[in-house]
Amino acid sequence: MRSMTKLFSKASVFFGFVMLAAASTASADEWQVDRNRSTLGFEVINNGNTVTGTFGTWDAKILFDDQDLESTQIQATIITGSVQTEDAQAAGAITTAQWLDISSYPDAVFRVDNVVPAGGDLYEAAGTLELRGAKIAVFLPFTLTIEGDTAHAVGEAKLSRSDFNIGDGVPESTVGDNVTVTLDLYATR
User: Fold this and answer.
1) What is the pLDDT of residues 99-136, one digit of tens each?
2) 60 strand-pairing partners
3) First to last CA, the chain
4) How far apart are alpha carbons 183 and 54 in whole angstroms?
5) What is the pTM of this model?
């Protein structure tokens, strides 16, 4: 009988921790991306010209409460084959094995580990981008305005294409190593 009491006691403690963990993640609001208004893009220098592009297919799971940033959970999944650019030369090459290699790496995933306030409507997100088999730490400063049940976030992250072996062998004098990822996101809760 005593061992049953200990078992129930341990089970109660375990389930207590599970319920506490569930309550802490449940306190954040779940946000749904407005795909019609949101864009995820990039800029890179190619032969001295700025080339811009967007990803047409991506989504994000967002749990966010500006009063409880520790409960924030964000994960964005980008379908690499949905990349679009008006630069004809870049459009012909960007999906190939030397660049995004969409057949071997059909998606990229950005996971946010930490969000901190940086004054006013500015926040800083730290996370990891998994792209072409590499996992690299990424810093994303963004502005955020929330009006009622609508949020608008605008941010830029600076990446190095060589960190992900993108365009391996192409000199920086031809295609810049620095890539700016741009985010203009609208979401509702």
Assistant:
1) 999 999 999 999 999 999 999 999 999 999 999 999 99
2) 76
3) 50
4) 10
5) 0.83
